Amino acid sequence: MTSQVPASILARGDAEDDGGRTKAAHFVFVPLREQGHLIPAVDTALLLATHGALCTIVAPPSTAVLVRRTVESTQRTRLPVRLVEFPLDYFESGLPEGADDGDRVPHRYMWNYYHAMALLRAPIESYLRAHAPYPTCIVSDFVHPWTTELAANLGVPRLSFFSMCAFGLLCQHNLERFHAYDGVKDSNEPVVVPGLERRFVVTRAQAPGFFRGIPIPWWEEFADYVERARAEADGVIVNTFLELEPEYVAGYAAAREMKVWTVGPVSTYHHSRTTLASTLASRGLRASAVDPDECLRWLDGKEPRSVVYVSFGSIAQADPKQVVELGLGLEASGHPFVWAVKDTADEYDETVREFLRELEARVGAGRCLLIRGWAPQLLILSHDAVGAFVTHCGWNSTLEAIAAGLPMVTWPHFSDQFLNEKMVVEVLGTGVSVGVKEPLTFQAVKKEILVGRDVVEEAVRSVMGDGEEAEERRRRARALAAKAAAAALVGGSSHANLQDLVNRFAPGPGTARGAAA
């Protein structure tokens, strides 16, 4: 086990007095490695540190390497954030050594990976007992139910961290609580989400529940374990902001009978530091595949709100046919576009690579910027030239777009992305759907679902158009961005919730179990 912080910070930081006692709240973050979970968790830790808390991020080496650059940059500004590594027990967990080193753990090894993470409980507990200052709160991603025991053994509260919207959380909760799928045999049969004032229709394929719907017995057991841990938490931290979805934040808090702290958009941490391209580009797990300054120069040459940005995140993978249809639809739309495609050298055959080269040559560098690999997404979305976002509806990306005031073309692939699409299209009214109704990733039975070039073209033209409907969509998006910015400022709801967390979980009586009530 190694620490990636200077000994002076590790052993005796600003949050500790001369007796080794904690003067300020000390949050220990246990994040999940997937970028949609990891990036906002780290940003939340950084924000809490700006409010005076000490934050320790614990992770295996393969995860720590992804966030070390960000943590080290904060340490140079003397923010009390530290990163501590704990090696996984590959042998005991049955996880092949190195299986956690890529962009994602192979699906067939996910169970082993979760088991390996659970085995870190004892070494993390020993470390926290041995190294001052003592923690005052555990903040764990909800997929780490074993942290219930970690917090109980340490005698401190535990908060569940969610990198998704309250609307999606409440929908999933109500679908399960009211047994909405009982007697529904077809996974694509429409079901009304119970317990909500407005009517929303979903299918089991779109919203099966966390770790539900996997035809392997131990996954159902794990899903039950996760649910028990969620119910036993001392509170919830959500990367959203109150003004975005007040009724759903209140509804989820009432349904769970626990405090919900909305602290987002947590990406605003990077805006508050500086507007330098290098800072905005640094939000992420890997170095950008394009020089941020080069990307900035390309965008600087475009008219305001004229560019379409396209990205499906780090997990979703368009098949070769879909890459071609998407590219042709973007070309036909007539708008300049930045497209973050997978690293074509690793992910696609020569046919796709040749198509992309021909597309670039045909459309021209002035109208088409292809990024083959990791893109500086926050930098791109924050630029005035960008007018819309074609997205897979991961909540991290969705909230970044909301904060940037951008309408979206919604193209969900799996998990909570279908509920996020409903949030954008049906609740907020800032999105246009391409019409995907079934999961495209992690399909139980492999099925080709193709969004044609005509649909892509129509959706892009619709969201970028000059008509009254398009302008109203943009007006709503701008209004939400203003609310997001206000939430993060002093006096805003998210700013106040961050300070409340720091105050509530400071040392003293408030650190006892149940302090979040």
TrEMBL record:
Instruction: List, alphabetically, the Gene3D superfamilies matched.
Output: Glycogen Phosphorylase B
Q: Indicate the transmembrane segments per the record.
A: none
Kindly list the GO molecular function terms attached to this UniProt entry.
UDP-glucosyltransferase activity
| Xref: SUPFAM superfamilies | UDP-Glycosyltransferase/glycogen phosphorylase
UniProt entry keywords in alphabetical sequence: Glycosyltransferase, Transferase
Q: Which Enzyme Commission number(s) are listed?
A: 2.4.1.-
Q: Which CDD domains match?
A: GT1_Gtf-like
Matching InterPro entries: UDP_glucos_trans, UDP_glycos_trans_CS
Enzyme class, top EC level, equals: transferase
Q: Which domain of life is it from?
A: Eukaryota
Q: What family does the Swiss-Prot or TrEMBL record give for this protein?
A: Belongs to the UDP-glycosyltransferase family.
| PANTHER family, sorted | GLYCOSYLTRANSFERASE
Query: In its UniProt entry, what is this protein called?
Result: Glycosyltransferase
